[in-house]
Every structure is written in structure tokens, then in C-alpha cells.
Amino acid sequence: MIKAVRGTRDLLPPYTALWNFVEAAVRDVFRAYNFQEIRTPIFEETALFSRSVGEETDIVSKEMYTWEDGERFNEKKMIDEWVAANQSSEPGHVQLGRVNVNPNPPFQLDCIQLYVTRGLGDPSRPWAGAVGSREEFVAFAPRISPDAIAALKKALGIARSQYANQFGSYQILLRLVVPDAATRSSPWLNTEGLEVEGFPGDFFSSSQSLTLRPENTAGVVRAYIENHLWDRGLNKLYYIGPQFRRERPQKGRYRQFYQIGAEVIGPASAGSESPARDAEVLEMLATLLDRLGITDWNLELNSVGCSSDRAKFNEALRKALEPVVGKMCADCQRRAVTNPLRVFDCKVPEDQPIIEKLPRISQFLDEPCRTHFEAVQAILTKVGVRFSLNDRLVRGLDYYTRTAFEFTHGALGAQNAILGGGRYDGLSEALGGPAAPGIGFAIGEDRLVMSLKETAEGVLRKPDVYVAPMAGMNGEAARLARELRQHDLVVELGDETFRLKKSFEAATRAGAKYILIVGENEVKADAFAVKNLATGEQVQVARAELAGKIQGK
Ligand code: HAM
């Protein structure tokens, strides 16, 4: 049996009702803050992530789903060059060339591209055939494959049986033409007497390295640059969608997971750099979590400074690590050389006392960064959003500058970060765009749903009514269900083959409030028996009043 891939999962009803509940609530909140939705592709060029998230991060160095894409065999180019090379200038040599590029039946085999006649004949009457000529069915393929061989052999069978008269004693040849290098790549394949020709040249279009997005900020900034979104001033964008990281799966950690994120990005002149934006985003998050009934969150806040602060900090970190790094884990030893900041990501318990004593970025902030950070805190205090400062918080992605934050939630266990984000003032430029300061966050939707107090049953809208047709009444029942649904009622429709008892059971299982019986008499009288499944109360209701009755009006 084929199962869902490790780290992925099916989200099934009624559980999906919770996801819809969350998404509806966040869309409401985003609307109130004037954010609009952006949808970027699920895969992007690999370079986008290595240049933004950073080569040395866990995400890029070991967690991405990356593949070489678009290594396309350019069949047309090969055919053209092969035909040109095989054209004969010999007088009397008939070269019919590309007769059957898209061959008529019965040669409609995917791989047969050419039907060639060679031989000496009368050049003025090529259709008359040629003396001592031979027919060739020629296929072109990127490599010698069992499929290509099988298709050619099938063509030979068809040609021999159906064209025996026409071809008479002609020799029928099958030829598989592959790029020169490909003749050496599968020497173990039995070509079963088929003629294989290696043809020199490069017939592959250049390939591209693609990656399933491990996060969405890079995609949004790429879209900002590509679509000249600076023309719109300040962009306030949100997204909801799957992301992919090859992490070790555990509770709250998946290989396909979902993020609800937002980005505020634009030219500095549009206010994108202002601490007011940071505070607004954080206040929106507090509102959003409160609105979902998630109250016991903790906002951890830090400033990771700008690039010049970071250079000084990295220098100090390298120095401080030198005498102690030998005692640390292998990852930390590597990070100490390549990107010392990442040492703070280390989760190895034995390394923690060493990390505790390392210098902190807070000691290296320059004046503008310090002022910016203080302004963010002042607004948060003013609007009543509680936070705690954590100068060990460096986040797992390289693009951050200045404000960095995470919201944690106690109920989540080890994977307690419900969301993370921060500023990325240099990202657009790093990706070849104009200066465009920005700030954003991404909520782990899987974790958000896990922290809800609501249950799926609690938020699911159950059927208001179950319409139960008696024998022969499917049509009438469908008409009635259609009318009721136009009144915004949730209607579950039964089937005329069900006995009454089975209809009642189905209505109860579906959680319907009412059951409505559609029989011949009811249709004639234009009035229907409506039974409240909880109280057992049953009343006769005229068709025109049914919707009102069910709505409890
Ligand atoms: P991140 O911290 O890598 O940031 O991810 C944000 C959130 O996604 C995490 O706090 C967590 O809730 C969730 N998450 C991450 N990995 C997994 C996983 N394997 N399974 C389940 N949930 C997971 C970013 O992705 C940045 N793009 C956020 C951002 C936006 N910064 C600025 N703008």
C-alpha cells in the first residue's frame, strides 16, 4: 500500500474545520490592518533561497527539497542537424528525407520521427522508389532506453506485416539516434540487434536547479523586485500556504507544513523602515492570537543590528569561541568558522553553558539601531503588548536585520515557536533589487491549530436539515433541498432507496438538527413533516415556511 510520505499528512474533516476557522479569522484581522493577499509559486530557483535564507543555515544546508529541472532533450535540433548531415548530393541518390515526421498510421509510435528512403533511383521520379534502396525508420532519443527500443521493434513488426507488398524485397532498417555521449552511458542495455547511432552535438537545453519553497519571504521579495511593487509605495502582503523542509518529523514539525505569513515592504520614503511598522506588525499578531483565544503566548524580542554591527559582533564571537570551540559539538565547530552567529541555534545541552557566556549582539548595536529598537519597545508598551527581551534570539535565517522576534506557546512542547519573524532591510538589495526595507513574520499554522482551545466539532457547521426522500421521491427531494440551500441552510440530502429507519440514522450521524420527510402525500399537500431530532417534536410545515421554521425564525 502506498502511504503518505514521511513528514506529510492528510488533513481530514472534521479537523479541517479548525483550519478554516483559523484562516477565516486571520483573513479578517489582515483586512482590518489593510493587508492584501499575495500568492507566489511553491517552487523557485534554488539560488533565491541560498542567497536570502543563507548557505550556512540549517534550512539551506540540509533541509531543502532541491532538484535539477528542465534538463530537456531538444529533439527538433537533433533531427534538423541529423537530416542536414544525411542529405546526399550524390546524383541519382534518392533521399526522401523527412517524409513522416509525424507519421501516418500505422507508424504512430511516439519515438518514430523519420521515415527515410535511401538508395539509387531516378531523382526526377522519387516516388517511384529506388533501385537497391532501403527504408529506414529513425527514432531520436536522449538515451538508449528500453522504451525506445520496444517502440522501434514494434514499428518494425508493423512495417513488415502491413507494408510487405509495397516494400517487396526492400530492406527495412531501424535506427535509434542518440547523442554521442549517450552511446557510452548504458552499455548494459540489450539493443536487440537495433542499429544505434551516436550523433555528435549538444542536444540538451541548460538545466535549472529548483527548490520547493522552505519559507515564503524570499518569494515575496523576489515578486516585489520582479513586479516593481515599489511603484505602489508601502506593500502590506499576506500569504497562507504550504512550505517544505526536510526536518526530522516530530510533534509540531512536519516536512510539508503550512505558514500564515505577512510582509511589509517598500521604499524607505513610504515608511517601511519606521519602528512604527515593527510595532504595528507585533500588535497585529497579539490581536490575532487573542482573537483566536490563544492567550498564553510569550513574545520574545531582540535586535540583531545592521550589517556593520554584525561584522563587529562576528569578530568578537570568533575571538570568544576560539579557546572554547574545541569542546563544542561538530556543528558549532563548523559554524564558528563559517557563520559564528549560528552557534546560538545550537540545541546540544552540553554546549549551552559555553553559549551562555558568549558576547551578545545587544552589546554591539550602533546608535541608529539602538534608537530604532527602543522606539519599537516604546510603542509596544504604549499599546499594551507585553514582551520579553531575549538577546540570544538570532533566528534561523540569515536575512534578518534589527528587530527579530518569536512568539512561543507553552502547550506546544519542544517545538514551542508558534511564529517567528523580523526585519530584513537589506534583502531586496541582496537579491539584486532596489533598497526596500521590510519586516514580516510567519506563523506555523500546524502549531497554531494545535494551540487552539476550540475543537473541530465546536466550529463545524453541522447540517440544519436532513432531507429524506421516500421511494421515487429523489427528484422532489432535490428540488426542495435546492430551495432550502438558497436560504443559506446546510442541507444533507438522503436517497429514496433508504428505509425511514436508515434515513433517521444517517441524519443523526450527520448531526442534523431536523429531518424532513419527502413523500408523495407531502408533495401533494405541499407541506412536509419536520422533526427536531434533539427534542423529537414533529410538526407539519407548508413549503413556503420551511426555511423560516428550520432557521428558528
Ligand atoms: P521560521 O522561523 O523559519 O521563519 O518559520 C516560522 C514558523 O513556521 C515557525 O515559528 C514555526 O511555527 C513554523 N515552522 C517552521 N518549520 C516548521 C516545520 N518543519 N513544521 C511545522 N512548522 C514549522 C520563516 O519562515 C520566515 N520566513 C518568517 C518571516 C517572514 N520573517 C520575515 N518575514
Spans of at least 5 consecutive residues with low confidence: 96-107
Mean pLDDT: 89
Bound molecules: histidyl-adenosine monophosphate
User: Structural class, from helix and strand content?
Assistant: alpha/beta
Radius of gyration: 35 Å
> Would you report the number of β strands?
21
Biggest sheet character: 8 strands, mixed
* Physical arrangement of strands within the biggest beta sheet: 1-10-11-16-15-14-12-13
Cα distance spanning the termini: 51 Å
Write a short abstract of this structure.
The protein has helices at 16-32, 46-54, 58-63, 75-86, 146-162, 164-167, 217-226, 275-291, 307-321, 330-338, 352-356, 367-383, 427-430, 445-450, 456-459, 474-485, 500-510, 520-525, 546-550, and strands at 36-37, 43-45, 66-69, 93-95, 112-121, 130-140, 171-179, 195-199, 208-212, 235-244, 256-265, 297-303, 388-389, 401-409, 417-423, 438-444, 465-469, 491-493, 514-518, 527-532, 538-542. With 553 residues, the chain is α/β, with parallel strands linked by helices.
Describe, in plain words, how this protein is organized in 3D.
The chain has 19 helices and 21 strands. With 553 residues, the chain is α/β, with parallel strands linked by helices. A hairpin with a 7-residue loop joins strand 14 and strand 15. It starts with 15 loop residues before the first helix and ends with a helix. The structure holds histidyl-adenosine monophosphate. Residues 215-217, 245, 247, 252-254, 257, 259, 261, 263, 396-397, 417-422, 424, 440-442, 444, 446-447 line the site of histidyl-adenosine monophosphate. Histidyl-adenosine monophosphate (HAM) is lined by residues 215-217, 245, 247, 252-254, 257, 259, 261, 263, 396-397, 417-422, 424, 440-442, 444, 446-447.
